[in-house]
């Protein structure tokens, strides 16, 4: 589903907007987050676990940064959270394809 598809424009977006307006203000962020996950899973379902792991890592990093700010060590926590994000991305991506091998032997001429 893309942003320009009729399914998005006529069904998904109005339903999301209606849900956003019907829920109380304290739950609206959750409505948008769930709608975003559904939209993303619809278009790129194979990468949804990567997105969920990034959300969990970043949420934990935010909690750790909040506690580190109170203790006066936010820089170390920022570096750790950046490394965790890179590790999650690296673990979920496929390895690069093997290099293309070409035949370097010269063709023999037949006479």
Automatic annotation (TrEMBL):
Ranges for region Disordered: 74-111
Source species, domain of life: Bacteria
Phylogenetic lineage: Bacteria, Bacillati, Actinomycetota, Actinomycetes, Streptosporangiales
Keywords for this protein: Acyltransferase, Membrane, Transferase, Transmembrane, Transmembrane helix
GO molecular function, one term: acyltransferase activity
UniProt name for this protein: D-alanyl-lipoteichoic acid acyltransferase DltB (MBOAT superfamily)
Biased composition (Polar residues): 101-111
Transmembrane segments: 6-23, 51-70
